[in-house]
Write a structure and sequence with these properties.
heterodimer, A: alpha/beta, 11-stranded mixed sheet, 13 helices, globular, B: mainly alpha, two-stranded antiparallel ribbon, 24 helices
Chain lengths: 337, 583
């Protein structure tokens, strides 16, 4: 009998590891208080996130709490939050931003307040734990975009180091490596993994920088450039039907994790907690996994649709860190003049 | 003409004759009016500028601990920034001079020659100004990229050459893209000045034996000096502040101008360098102020009156066979600046992807998505509301400021004019930050921040320089004797204002209104910082679509905006025509 119980426990552990963890609810008191607050305001730097409306709807349907989403580019939204916090105009409840940026803003401006514990945070991946203030919400992974008419399979770069090959001189288009966004993430990941010497070798290939991601992807598809980096894997669905291919580099994917946090003096703190807990619940995370983003809770990747499973579980290479952000911008400007 | 001595007979500008106590009350009321106007303009301009000045002198933005220093300005006057400034001036001159020459030529063709279908051509010539720059940038990138650009491919196919003659990612590309916007902008300013000009002086010149060219150079152009210098300065300053063209075509070619430098200082750091961004903006502003001051000095004390009390018919030059050449020139301009890029957008909007014109990619999906989007319709509704109210308020404010500045000698008029000018001299992305700081710092009970009022106030501020310039040019051409005649015949001040000044200057008012309306429609820098949930505007929605790679949907909206322009301009010109015939 004892043996049976032990086998049962082991089996349960395996099941738990392979399937998404069950959603856990906050106390009824918090939920009631959140419902009384009636609404919340989400500020996000992921501008026009196509999954936000759907995820917000699931929350509104479940709890009857309205969510107002204000999205703007990172610089603008950061300054707006800073201004509102310093002038006492507390409008926003939940702030979503890149992990490094949010961590830095918390340290420099003290704009976050503790979320007070969220049941669903127990399901977060071990590599992406929550802190007392910040909670991971999803991850965006990057690779290389290749024009399939111009790049034969045999010539495709397999690794980030292949891009330094002289055959790509003048043929590489890139998000600006000296600026926040995909470019800075790629710079940091390469710098931490391959070092500055590789950057110097890469710079010799006269990379053309451009920051209009949506247009740039189509410029590659049209044949203006054979390769573009870094390419968001989640954008590939929009390029379906074009002669382009996503290449996952051997070293892994540079990535950016978006975190959620409750802002100080949030006017709807209970609704904010409830929203974040919902965001890292199974329903929302599966929606991200099926939208070619990387979920942050256990088992969600395995439960994603077959086509998305590989993306949801992709190998991650590196990302920006608050302690090196400014130094890396300066280094990038020095190398890629 | 203004008399300020109380107790004696005095005559105010516009011919108001007053006596004794009435004159005192009039003067007090006038002073209060000027003070109120200065206060309004001060709130709209000096207040956000004050916040920005603080930002340029303080190591951190308002509300954060830091120290006062001049580090931002020290950085501005270091080597690289000065070179960037010189580059920017060079680019702005390179686009303003040909754009002005072309605008004058086009305006002359439309207003003063018998070129066929001039009315329709006038609408077509102005169209490029109203197309969102980012859309034409994308279209020109498809047409003129050196690798697979349509024009280069065509050239290679025709000549067998392997060399691409056009590269839009270059200095030339930046200047060319800017010219496309400057020319119709300047044309809009100039065409009505040509149209409203009494030809008697030109006729006298011709009767005295001067050639047409000499008459044009010695009379027409000289009489248009205020309008031309105003237009030149407006366009030159706008060139310094141009952002989309250098960002899109200059960045890949490693061309940096002031605006991209400001953009980089805000966006290319972990913590935005607002001190440098605002310091460089104020330094450029000081330089531009010198330019405006020089214009004031040049034009001071000279008369440019061309609209007098005498009846006249705007003279139309008979060009004979040459009218087809001028017609062809207008059509060529329209073809190159509108047909070429817009055809890319139009055709592209019916395919799944721009530039991939295959049968299996034909779709109406982008139109369906745009028409079915409640977010787009809400933004459209908000924008129309803000555009209608904002443009009307802006033009009313501009008309009053211009009147005081041009038609009176009132004390404080220069201050008012300078205040109205300020927003034009500050790059939009920096001024947007100024509005954010200013409105957020207002005392709690003043409910502007986070409401649609914040957007409206920002739009009125941003539009006032154009409205003042448009109305100043119009007022400068009106003879004072028109007002005096009206007053002598018993009309009140307001009757005179309405029946003479408004009636004669209203074509310019209408042009200014359209300009302001579409400026509001396109404005992004302040909108993105000031909008709130529920008060989204079209420019913000377009930017979100663009950021998500939905350029095809952006094009659909851009094409709709163009249709709106055509309707507006058609209505305006029909109305204009009927008004002119009754003058």
């Amino acid at each position: 009998m004892r043996m049976m119980r032990m086998l049962g426990a082991i089996a349960a552990l395996f099941v738990a590891a392979g399937a998404p963890a069950r959603a856990a609810e906050l106390d009824a008191g918090v939920i009631d208080a959140a419902k009384k607050e009636g609404k919340l305001s989400l500020y996000t730097s992921f501008i026009g996130n196509p999954l936000h409306p759907a995820i917000v709807k699931t929350f509104e349907r479940k709890y009857g709490i309205a969510v107002e989403v204000y999205d703007a580019r990172a610089t603008e939204i950061n300054e707006r939050v800073r201004t509102e916090q310093t002038t006492g105009r507390f409008i926003a409840d939940v702030f979503q931003n890149g992990q490094a940026t949010l961590e830095r803003l918390e340290k420099e401006q003290g704009i976050l307040q503790p979320h007070g514990g969220l049941p669903n945070s127990a399901n977060l991946l071990a590599a992406h734990p929550a802190t007392a203030t910040r909670v991971p919400s999803y991850i965006l992974g990057y690779g290389i975009l290749a024009n399939t008419n111009l790049v034969k399979p045999a010539d495709e770069p397999k690794s980030w180091t292949d891009l330094a090959d002289v055959k790509w001189k003048g043929k590489l288009m890139s998000d600006d490596l000296r600026a926040p966004g995909g470019g800075a993430i790629l710079f940091a990941a390469i710098q931490d993994t391959l070092g500055a010497d590789f950057h110097r070798a890469l710079a010799l290939n006269n990379i053309v920088f451009s920051r209009d991601v949506g247009v740039d992807e189509k410029r590659v598809a049209a044949g203006e450039f054979p390769l573009r980096m870094p390419q968001l894997v989640s954008n590939m669905a929009q390029l379906k039907g074009l002669p382009v291919k996503f290449i996952m580099a051997l070293e892994g994917a540079p990535y950016v994790r978006f975190d959620l946090a409750v802002l100080k003096n949030a006017p709807h703190p209970n609704a904010a907690r409830l929203f974040i807990n919902h965001y890292i619940g199974e329903e929302a995370q599966l929606m991200y996994a099926n939208g070619a983003l990387i979920p942050v809770i256990e088992g969600a990747a395995a439960k994603a649709g077959e086509a998305m499973r590989g993306i949801a579980g992709m190998k991650l290479m590196g990302t920006t860190r608050p302690e090196t952000q400014e130094a890396y911008y300066a280094l990038a400007k020095e190398i890629y003049k | 003409m203004s008399g300020q001595t109380a107790g004696t007979i005095s005559q105010a500008p516009g011919g108001v004759i007053n006596r004794g106590g009435f004159a005192r009350r009039y003067l007090q009321g006038r002073a209060a009016g000027v003070a109120a106007l200065a206060l309004i303009l001060g709130f709209l301009t000096l207040y956000p500028f004050g916040m920005l000045l603080y930002g340029s002198l303080h190591s951190t933005p308002p509300g954060m601990a830091g120290e006062f220093n001049l580090n931002g300005y020290a950085e501005v006057f270091s080597g690289p920034a000065v070179i960037i400034l010189l580059n920017t001036i060079g680019i702005s001159l390179a686009k303003t001079i040909p754009a002005l020459a072309m605008a004058v030529f086009l305006a002359w063709i439309i207003a003063r020659t018998d070129t066929p279908w001039a009315g329709k051509l006038e609408v077509l010539i102005t169209l490029p100004f109203f197309i969102p720059p980012i859309l034409t940038a994308m279209a020109w990138a498809m047409l003129g990229n050196p690798q697979v650009g349509l024009l280069n491919t065509l050239w290679k196919w025709m000549t067998g050459s392997t060399v691409s003659p056009i590269n839009v990612y270059s200095w030339g590309g930046v200047v060319w893209h800017m010219i496309q916007y400057s020319t119709p902008f300047l044309f809009l300013f100039i065409v009505d000045i040509f149209r409203a000009m009494d030809p008697s002086l030109e006729e006298s010149s011709r009767m005295c034996g001067a050639s047409r060219w000499r008459t044009f150079r010695g009379i027409t152009l000289v009489l248009m000096m205020p309008a031309l210098t105003n237009s030149f300065i407006l366009s030159f300053i706008r060139g310094i502040e141009s952002f989309e063209s250098p960002l899109f075509f200059g960045t890949p070619a490693k061309i940096t101008v002031i605006t991209t430098e400001i953009y980089n200082s805000i966006n290319h750091h972990a913590t935005p360098d607002y001190q440098y961004a605002t310091a460089i903006s104020f330094s450029v502003m000081a330089m531009m102020f010198l330019l405006v001051f020089a214009q004031w000095r040049i034009l001071r004390g000279r008369s440019f009156t061309t609209v007098t009390g005498k009846g006249y018919q705007p003279s139309v030059m008979k060009l004979g066979r040459w009218r087809w050449a001028t017609f062809a020139f207008c059509i060529l301009f329209f073809f190159v600046t509108v047909v070429l890029p817009v055809s890319q957008l139009f055709i592209g909007s019916f395919f799944r992807f721009f530039g991939f014109y295959q049968w299996d990619m034909l779709t109406l999906e982008h139109y369906r998505n745009v028409f079915a989007s409640s977010e787009i319709w809400r933004a459209f509704g908000n924008t129309m509301l803000l555009g209608l109210i904002g443009a009307s308020l802006t033009m009313a404010l501009g008309a009053v400021v211009a009147y005081i500045s041009i038609r009176t000698k009132w004390r404080g008029r220069r201050l008012i004019e300078a205040l109205a000018w300020l927003p034009w001299m500050m790059p939009g992305m920096v001024l947007g930050i100024g509005f954010l700081w200013a409105f957020a710092m207002l005392p709690g009970p003043i409910p502007i921040y986070g409401t649609i009022w914040a957007l409206l106030l920002a739009y009125v501020t941003l539009g006032t320089p154009v409205s003042v310039r448009v109305m100043s040019g119009a007022y400068a051409q009106l003879s004072f004797d028109l007002e005096e005649c009206s007053r002598v015949h018993g009309a009140t001040f307001f009757q005179t204002l309405w029946r003479i000044l408004v009636a004669l200057a209203w074509p310019s008012f209408a042009v200014g209104w359209v300009l302001t309306f579409f400026m509001i429609m396109r404005e992004l820098s302040a909108s993105i910082l000031l909008y709130s949930v529920g008060s989204e505007v079209l420019s913000v929605t377009l930017m979100k679509l663009w950021a998500n790679g939905l350029a095809e949907q952006v094009s659909v909206i851009g094409l709709m905006m163009m249709m709106l322009v055509i309707v507006f301009r058609w209505v305006q010109l029909r109305f204009l025509k009927s008004r002119i015939s009754t003058l």
